[in-house]
Design goal:
The protein is an alpha/beta fold and 429 residues long. The protein folds into two domains: 4-69 and 320-428, Aspartate Aminotransferase, domain 1; 71-317, Aspartate Aminotransferase, domain 2, CATH 3.40.640. Helix content is 39%, strand content 14%. The chain has 15 helices and 14 strands. It has helices at 4-16, 71-83, 92-104, 117-132, 158-161, 172-175, 186-195, 221-232, 251-256, 282-285, 304-317, 320-343, 369-373, 377-389, 410-427; strands at 38-42, 45-48, 53-56, 110-114, 136-140, 178-181, 200-205, 235-240, 262-265, 276-280, 349-353, 356-360, 392-393, 402-403. A seven-stranded mixed beta sheet has the order 4-10-9-8-7-5-6, with helices on both faces. Helix 3 (92-104) packs parallel to helix 11 (304-317) and helix 14 (377-389) packs across helix 15 (410-427). The radius of gyration is 21 Å and the shape is globular. The two termini are 23 Å apart. The protein binds pyridoxal-5'-phosphate (PLP).
Length: 429
Amino acid sequence: MINDASSAAFERAQALLPGGVNSPVRAFRGVGGVPRFIDRGAGAYLYDIDGNQYIDYVLSWGPLILGHAYPAVVEAICVQAQRGTSFGAPTELESELAELVIAAVPSVEMVRFVSSGTEATMSAIRLARAYTQREKIIKFEGCYHGHADPFLVQAGSGVATLGLPDSPGVLKSATSNTLTAPFNDLDAVEALFKANADQVAALVIEPVAGNMGFVLPREGYLAGLRQLCDQHGALLIFDEVMTGFRVAYGGAQAYFNVMPDLTCLGKVVGGGLPAAAYGGRREIMQQVAPAGSMYQAGTLSGNPLAMVAGIQTLREIAKPEVFERLTGVTSTLCQGFWKAAFKNGIPFQAHKAGSMWGFFFAADEVYDFTSAKRADTVMFGKFFHAMLEQGVYLAPSQFEAAFVSTAHTDELVAQTINAAQAAFASIRS
Ligand SMILES: Cc1ncc(COP(=O)(O)O)c(C=O)c1O
């Protein structure tokens, strides 16, 4: 595969942008090699500037559940662009998307739109602190909630990929109220609550972890967290930036039937444009300014282009048959990859929930960040490049999830599994 144009573009970008990118994991540091510079996307395909075609399982890190450049979404964006791209004044589009979100996500009664997942989670904990009049939060090792200071403790995603310590520049005072526990360990959370009685404002979690690789909650774990929060007067915040409209139309809370107090959304809710949201019980949301006194604002919040992209996307995926199909596709991929790895004698495991999936090069169960870090990242890097050579674009890090879209046909899935079979055979040593 020729990468001359990507190599030249990367060299140019490195002189202009730190590491040549605007978000760290895009730089391929976790797997080595030259990041592919993208020319365009269409359906399940990405095309790089050297003219190479890839079946895309990153999908802009989750948002593109309908695939690239889905005609109805593109059309809606074009129509809106002609009418104006930003007003800084309310539009009916915001209420239209809010109605769709509230109808879809069971625990959400009111919603505030922002422009990124980082803003959503940062605002949600400010709100939880305002509501409970408490200062501490509990987060989980390997979970990623965007790059706001209080969350950059034992964070997943790019922080895990680069093996970074908690980031320089984050003041100790900004994280001194952040307590951490291992994922899937209820006893550890109970101990934190007991040691910090009446001080914990909220517990924030990715209900299915997608930023330390893909890790499912154990049976009863989320319900157990709900119970502990109730017992100790803390709010339960589900960060569904990744899982929202992904593991089910109603998110992980619908999938596992556990209701948080606050929910953070992003990615799919903006249909590939920058929109995100936090929402929850009316009584809590009423504390957000100007209804209440918890201040949070944004010049481009509720941006009309992002609103129409979100509206169109949610309308398309609201049908139950869409999720049935997406779930079938991820099952086929997980089984296909696992069988191919097994045939080649490679320790491997793959899991899925709805349209989100992931795998580890590990023999033992991965259930938290420590066990995720035991997975073989060297093997992952080899597999990643072997897949890329065959035109399959996976996340360039072991510590990320994979996604599918409605554009991933059975034929493309079969082609991907054949590629995986060849990739496993080539990396077996
Ligand atoms: C679970 C989760 N929360 C928050 C974020 C931050 O979202 P954004 O990158 O839009 O700021 C991400 C990003 O990947 C995420 O996966």
